[in-house]
Amino acid sequence: MKKQSLGPRTVLYPHPVLVIGTYDASGRPNAMVAAWGGICSSRPPAVAVSVQKARQTYENLVKQREFTISIPSVNYIRETDYFGIVSGRDEDKFAATGLTPVKGDLVNAPYVGEFPVVLECRLLQTVEIGVHTQFIGEILDVKMEEGVVGEDGRPDLEKIRPIAYDSLRQEYYGHGKTLGKAFSVGKGIKR
């Protein structure tokens, strides 16, 4: 039995820290931190991010219908947090942080050049959910820095060092070591 009820809350451990890249109507790059997001389909490969209507990113997503998701490493915790503190209406976040907006190869949206992993996405659909709109994007390409690729040619989580978020404590965390191989470590229980 669980000892304490928290009631209905936005708790899911951990939340990924995703940086959504878009251009505004004048072509200025913008980036916003989102923790309400994740993979939502494997065929087609798709990701969902939820954004409030008051955000500049919401307006950009509705107009542009293309976006990127940059996955920051713990090396850029300050800059990433800044992307979530100020509005793209008031600040040029890339200029303020010194990070580099890079135009996507397949979409008309910027990504953060210094971040190790980038998803280029085209909007498939939107879903209105309370105070958020969920934007579902087809993943057209995933780009990675060479330094975060393992010997097997796949992304290495320990090299990427992504940031996780705790929404109740409003704190960021890093990821630890590998615990075991998925679809394998539990085989000893199977009858």
Top keywords for this entry?
191 residues, mainly beta, Pnp Oxidase, Chain A, 3-stranded antiparallel β-sheet, 4 helices, 39% strand
Question: How would you describe this structure to a colleague?
Answer:
- One of its GO terms (molecular function) is oxidoreductase activity.
- This is Flavin reductase family protein.
- Its EC number is 1.5.1.-.
- Its cofactor is FMN.
- This protein is mainly β and 191 residues long.
- It has a single domain (15-174), classed as Roll (Pnp Oxidase, Chain A), CATH 2.30.110.
- Helix content is 14%, strand content 39%.
- It has helices spanning 56-64, 77-85, 93-97, 157-160, and strands at 15-16, 18-23, 29-34, 37-42, 45-52, 66-71, 101-103, 110-112, 117-129, 132-144, 163-166, 171-174.
- Strands 3-2-6-9-10-5-4 form a 7-stranded antiparallel β-sheet. Strands 1-11-12 form a 3-stranded antiparallel β-sheet, with no helix packed on it.
- β2 (18-23) and β3 (29-34) form a beta hairpin.
Q: By helix and strand content, what is the structural category?
A: mainly beta
Q: Care to count the β-strands?
A: 12
CATH C-level name: Mainly Beta
Radius of gyration over alpha carbons? 17 Å
N-to-C SSE series?
Answer: EEEEEHEHHEEEEHEE
Instruction: Give a short account of the largest sheet.
Output: 7 strands, antiparallel
What is the number of independent domains? 1
The termini sit apart by: 27 Å
DSSP strand content: 35-45%
